[in-house]
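Pipeline run #58 for the internal structure catalog. This entry was flagged by the ingest filter as a single-chain record with no existing model, so it goes straight to prediction. Upstream metadata was stripped on purpose; only the residue string is passed forward. Reviewer on rotation: M.T. Logging verbosity set to normal.
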Amino acid sequence: MTELSKTQTTLNQPEPTKPPRSQWLDVWDQFKTHKGAMMGGILFILIVAGVYLGPFIWDIDATQIDIRSRNQGPSWAHPFGTDQLGRDLLARMMAGGATSVSVGITAMLLALFLGSFIGVLAGFFKRLDGPLMRLTDLFLALPLLPLLLVMMLLFREPLNAAFGLEQGIFILIVSAIGITSWMPTARIVRGDVLALKEREFVLAARSIGTTNSKLITRHILPNVLSPIMVSATLGIATAIITESALSFLGLGFPPDFPTWGRLLFDGVDYLQQYPERVIWPGLAISLTVLSVNYLGDGLRDALDPRIRGR
């Protein structure tokens, strides 16, 4: 074979093509440019690791009472001091954080499921739009805190009898928060579904006989993932604040079961003598909510294709 034919053969060969870039890599590249979101994500991971893994390192029992060590200030033995019963405040902060974060995540998942389900049904099926949106408006019009108080008073005893004191209160608080916080997610998802179902790819899938269930699961839900994930991050913050408010009012978990809101409630009586008892749980709640809000802000920018790359 001559040099000319070799050159022609080389030119005729197709150039190797690069594999298509993953969409999630684009999302990650956009997310990394948001400094607040990166700091919020790192802080939230540190908080979650501290409250769940911390008890394995600091193995003092959060409910252990030592009257001789009560009302002590920070020391090497008790870095955050002790409360009026001699219980270690660092151990109670970690145990209370695990409870508060667990309530926040579980209540967020419940609210996310209800809001996404109702939002997809209302946006996709025209005959269900009116009734479901009027139901959403009804829940939005209800006063949140009095409704939560009524639910706590009505269902506390039956759930405690059925599941035990701690599990019953956990189920009640998660259900109460989830049932009263799904409405913003439903409105956001409904608006996106109304726009998506008129897009060309949905009309093309419908024209070839795709069933409604497959249209929703294969074409609608993947495209409303962005607002759902943003609502998820913001829902954690809302649930943590609501649980803390209920515990602060004395309507949450029992006194011997710590949460950040309960620690705030217990520290109010000693605010002047020991202000750190209010500062530590208040700071933990503030940092957790702030980190989650920044995380949601970064996810919103990264998952929105209209502003990705700016």
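catalog note: Residues 89-124 form the longest helix (36 residues).
catalog note: Residues 96 and 259 are 4 Å apart (CA to CA).
status: ready for reviewer M.T.
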